[in-house]
Design goal:
Helix content: 25-40%
Distance between the termini: 9 Å
Number of strands: 4
Largest sheet: 4 strands, parallel
Order of helices and strands: EHEHEEH
Strand order of the largest sheet: 2-1-3-4
Strand content: 15-25%
Structural class: alpha/beta
Low-confidence stretches: none
């Protein structure tokens, strides 16, 4: 079995988007992705709406913690996925850098928050599929 790809999901507060992306990687791609999330200016808390909408899918986001980019494991990542932190995200060495242009859902009504959650879930599924194809091609 190929080694897991190290994927870092980054947003500003590490309270919503990057946390949900990490959760989806655990749900959908735990055999292919070693998922880590962090924020450029972490809030220190996981957004309660994020906890609620992930609980609807059977995932306990309440066990996560909001962390800084200074707290993540060092070394090169295979993928760095940013979500709306723009110029606030420092360069982190990785083979692939992507920016997922997703709105910060923290102030959105719950229905719109769920839409962002679902977009993140679909993008994580797509990323996992690309990683699987790459792993098979490199065998």
């Amino acid at each position: 079995m190929p080694a897991k790809k190290r994927v870092l999901f980054v947003c500003i507060e590490n309270s919503c988007r990057s946390q949900m992306a990490e959760a989806f990687a655990h749900l959908y791609a735990q055999d292919a992705i070693e998922a880590i999330s962090a924020g450029s200016r972490p809030s220190g808390l996981i957004n309660l709406k994020a906890v609620a909408v992930m609980a609807e899918l059977g995932y306990d986001l309440g066990s996560h913690s909001s962390k800084s980019l200074l707290e993540i494991p060092r070394g090169k990542y295979d993928y760095v996925i940013t979500m709306g932190c723009g110029d606030e995200c420092p360069f982190i060495p990785a083979d692939v850098h992507e920016d997922w242009d997703l709105p910060d859902p923290k102030a959105l009504p719950l229905d719109e928050f769920r839409q962002v959650r679902d977009q993140i879930g679909e993008r994580v599924k797509e990323l996992a599929a690309r990683i699987e194809v790459s792993n098979h091609a490199n065998r």
